[in-house]
Design brief:
The chain is elongated, with a radius of gyration of 23 Å. It has about 160 residues and is mainly alpha-helical. It has one domain. It is built from seven helices and no strands.
Length: about 160
């Protein structure tokens, strides 16, 4: 195997575990920081891309939580750490991530509860944004967008 000649196999597994954890953190940050896009009408392509990303992110999160009891990326990173001879964290990634970023170590139950509350809030904000974008624009919005008065219906005498 070409890669085995370049790296020692345990080092490769630890490197891959680090990449999975970095990707996990970046995906979580992108999901959280992108939440305002659910209700913002500017940049519709970015909004649509974020909506699809976030739907997939939440679906994978919920499905893996239901099937594995934790995020699939946490399971994958632990497996890679153990295959590389390193430590396999026995706590969810969000606990480790929160500890590294904010120097706070919540319990596993607290982290899972916060994550579930975040998903519920995401769903509520998403539904609110979807409902707001489904409404037809008001006359004032139409006037400001076109820069002039909207055509008036003909009046009969």
């Amino acid at each position: 195997m070409f890669l085995a000649g370049c790296f020692a196999v345990p080092t490769l597994f630890r490197f891959l575990a680090s990449l999975v954890e970095l990707s996990h953190g970046l995906l979580m940050l992108a999901w959280g920081l992108g939440l305002p896009l659910l209700v913002w009408r500017g940049m519709p392509r970015l909004r649509r891309a974020y909506i699809w990303f976030s739907l997939g992110f939440v679906a994978v999160s919920l499905a893996s939580r239901w099937l594995l009891g934790e995020c699939v990326l946490t399971t994958w990173a632990r497996w890679l750490w153990e295959a590389g001879g390193g430590h396999g964290e026995s706590v969810p990634f969000i606990v480790t991530f929160t500890n590294r970023v904010a120097s706070v170590r919540p319990s596993t139950d607290t982290a899972v509860l916060i994550w579930e509350v975040a998903i519920v809030l995401y769903c509520l904000v998403g539904l609110w944004g979807w409902r707001a974008s489904a409404r037809p624009p008001s006359r004032a919005t139409e006037m400001s967008r076109t820069g002039r008065n909207a055509p008036q219906p003909a009046r009969e005498c």
